[in-house]
Design a protein that fits this description.
Blueprint (H helix, E strand, L loop, with lengths): L2 H16 L3 H10 L4 H18 L5 H21 L5 H24 L11 H12 L2 H11 L8 H5 L4 H18 L3 H22 L2 H27 L2
Helix pairs in contact: 1-3, 1-5, 2-3, 3-4, 4-5, 7-11, 9-10, 9-11
């Protein structure tokens, strides 16, 4: 990756996540464009460009980054509400990175190399990753639905849809471990999950719940292993 692009991204990460206290975020959300912290935040992003490049010759780049950052943050503050705050956070970061790539292209004639998309294995990996998320969750639910215990501990104590997202994360981690030839990490993951689940199963005193959890865990791991080996051995 181009060194100039890396430096601009680094400045953004430092400015948005390390040098922006929660108190500033709350003040910006309450006062919006009248917040002094908004303009201080923009100033920090501008100064960070000079620091990471260690030169005053990049003043045009710094001012461009600062101006675009102000426009994006201002629009976010005007549009954001309590209902869409989570979506706006991710949308804000996506637009920021788009602006970064745009500025990088304008000032340094940067061009992203996407030739890797011509490789069929890339598309296979993308397909495998997507399959291990919601499609696998649905397939597992269909398979083990008839064994769901009447009174599960999760129904009373767990977060909403926590089990589904835990399963998705564990399958993606297995895929990552196997594709990077870290098979030992898969065993560690299985052992860690078993330890965390042991307490719940012990308290439940329910053989059916224990069997249900074991079936779900082994099925999830089995599907993840099969898909991962397919991607790893594809020529």
């Amino acid at each position: 990756m181009d060194i100039f692009l890396i430096k601009i991204i680094l400045a953004h990460l430092i400015g948005d996540f390390f040098l922006q206290p929660n108190a500033w975020v709350k003040e910006k959300e309450s006062k919006k464009l009248k917040s002094g912290k908004l303009y201080l935040h923009i100033g920090i992003h501008t100064v960070l460009i000079f620091i990471v490049f260690w030169s005053f010759d990049v003043w045009k780049l710094a001012l461009s980054i600062g101006a675009l950052h102000f426009i994006i943050d201002a629009l976010k503050l005007l549009i954001q509400s309590k209902k869409n705050a989570r979506i706006m956070f991710f949308a804000d970061q996506v637009v920021h990175f788009i602006s970064i790539f745009f500025v990088w292209h304008i000032f340094y004639s940067g061009v992203l190399d996407i030739s890797f998309l011509d490789n069929p294995k890339v598309w296979l990996i993308i397909s495998c990753l997507l399959f291990l998320t919601m499609p696998t969750s649905i397939i597992m639910r269909v398979i083990i639905n008839k064994w769901i215990p009447a009174n599960r501990v999760e129904d009373q104590k767990s977060l909403q849809d926590a089990g589904k997202y835990i399963g998705v994360l564990e399958r993606l981690l297995i895929f990552l471990f196997i594709c990077t030839n870290h098979f030992e990490a898969v065993g560690f993951l299985l052992a860690a999950k078993s330890i965390f689940r042991f307490g719940d199963l012990k308290e439940a005193h329910d053989i059916k719940l224990t069997e249900y959890v074991l079936i779900g865990t082994l099925l999830s791991f089995g599907i993840a292993l099969a898909v991962s080996m397919l991607a790893l051995n594809y020529k």
